[in-house]
Amino acid sequence: MKTDVEIAQSAKMQPITEIAARIGIEPNELELYGPYKAKISLDIMKRIEDKPQGKLVLVTAISPTPAGEGKTTTTIGLGQALNKIGKKAIVALREPSLGPVFGIKGGATGGGYAQVVPMEDINLHFTGDIHAVTTAHNLLAALMDNHLHQGNELDIDSRQIVWRRVMDLNERVLRNVVLGLGGRINGVPRESGFDISVASEVMAALCLATDLMDLKERFAKIVVAYSQQGQAITAGDLKAAGSMALLMKDAIKPNLVQTLENTPAFIHGGPFANIAHGANSIVATRLGVKLADYMVTEAGFGADLGAEKFFNIVCRYGQLVPDAVVLVASIRALKHHGGVKKDKLGEENLEALAQGMENLKKHLENIQKFGVPAVVALNEFPSDTSKEIDYVFSQCAAMQTAVSISRVWAQGGEGGIDLAEKLVLATEQGSQFKFLYDLNQPLKNKIDTICREIYGAGSVKYSAEANRMLQKYEESGFGDLPVCIAKTQYSLSDNAQLLGRPTGFEVNIRQVKLSAGAGFVVALAGDIMTMPGLGKVPAAENIDIKPDGEIVGLF
């Protein structure tokens, strides 16, 4: 059996100019990065602004497990399948971070015969967007520390600096560091740390901005510190927004590639959904709904994270209305939620499946709260039995939800035709999309609503520091922002060990952070960290390049 990278390396790619022409992108609107990658000029939006909009489809999943769900693979395969049934479809994904690529997850370009290509390029640096985010973020940090060193005219309180540095790798030893050691010439000593680049507010702002000038305005609003009098100090105060925007002038442009079956794919922006808002860029999504009959995008991790944030944050700022949702699950993953260990997932276990099915039901109930039709994609594995499949179908029928077996990993678009046809029917039901909460509610009310309504919590507990900062944000005029909760992806709760559908638990909000430039308040729950560490056997140990340039071990 071929590996994913071997399948990708044998793909017959078409010149990216041909892919672009098929969806109405003109040659002068393309900036080529070799024969198979291109950036798209944002000037295209003026030309197509009067075109009718296609359908917007969000692909999400049950709570992730080590057993695998296949959300990205399903997204890509669904786009291929829609094209097979005569619909013009585009898929939109987030850019892979080098942290997971060299960490535990490996690549993030799909799998089997549902992949985006050129796979190696997309997983490794791509067009440099994440490096631009890293540089723009760290430029702001450097300007702030220079301001401190050069006299501190803004009277910044070095104990209240909230802007850390970032890098796009998993590096636990940098979570907490001391800067400025070695005497006065080396700056003002203080405690700080690093986050992973995709958790940067610069990344969030990139994905939520509508154009470069909007991005520059968002940069100016970024709060980096507080003065001795408690006043917010922004990137605008440091005169950093212009140079930051300059570094992002190319990164703001969506990237165009293709799938194994030459379906157009936008890959742009890459925030994690457990520590950020977890969706690709608004500019790519807006472009897709103008150029395609069906724009198929994904949101990170389970529906409690990526989908909730897509609905409540991305759709607000992008003025987007989703027409349908695809909820991805696998029987193996459901059994894991029912308590089955990873080495026993290939054995039939209807009792565990029934328990794990509660996780899927909760996610479906949550999607229904937003008024969007849903279809369940059951990602097929060879160990699935007919009794297990029948049970999932019967439970979905009881919830009046269409379900389809997805075989896109093994068969590409052909294996997703039934899913595509059921999705088309779902989009014809008509979306009654609505937000979960009103922005005029206090920040605590919004956090409580998500914890209780989406996660199923019985209560929410705030640390003294979180209470103090929430009150400060309200008093400073930021109370009308949406909220972005950072928590473990493995559970509906903030405890990774509580699988399935836990109830009555307490969510612990230990810290809150203001992302004024991105346009939301982040609430950190449980022990979630914004800088991951490497596992015992990192994927990097198995990744290599041969003398002839062939890349091996990349997923």
Walk me through the topology:
Blueprint: H1 4-9, H2 16-22, E1 30-32, E2 38-40, H3 44-48, E3 55-61, H4 71-84, E4 89-93, H5 98-102, E5 110-111, E6 114-117, H6 119-123, H7 129-149, E7 156-161, E8 165-167, E9 177-179, E10 190-192, E11 194-196, H8 201-208, H9 212-221, E12 223-227, E13 232-234, H10 241-247, E14 255-259, E15 264-267, H11 282-291, E16 294-298, H12 303-318, E17 324-329, H13 331-337, H14 350-369, E18 374-379, H15 386-398, E19 402-406, H16 408-411, H17 417-427, H18 443-455, E20 459-462, H19 464-475, E21 483-486, E22 506-515, E23 520-525, E24 544-545, E25 551-552
Parallel strand pairs: 3-16, 3-17, 4-15, 4-16, 8-11, 17-18, 18-19, 20-22, 21-23
Antiparallel strand pairs: 1-2, 2-14, 5-6, 6-14, 7-12, 9-10, 12-13, 14-15, 22-23, 24-25
Helix pairs in contact: 4-17, 7-8, 7-10, 9-10, 13-14, 14-15
Q: List the total number of helices.
A: 19
Coarse shape: globular
CA-CA gap between termini: 14 Å
Which structural class should the secondary elements be placed in? Answer: alpha/beta
Indicate the mean pLDDT.
94
Oligomer: single chain
**Into which percentage range does the β-strand content fall?**
15-25%
- How many E strands? 25
How helix-rich are the residues, as a percent range?
Answer: 25-40%
What this model shows, in words?
Helix content is 35%, strand content 20%. The chain has 19 helices and 25 strands. Strands 1, 2, 3, 4, 5, 6, 14, 15, 16, 17, 18 and 19 form a 12-stranded mixed beta sheet that branches. It has a 4-stranded mixed beta sheet with strand order 20-22-23-21. A hairpin with a 5-residue loop joins strand 1 and strand 2. Helix 7 runs antiparallel to helix 10.
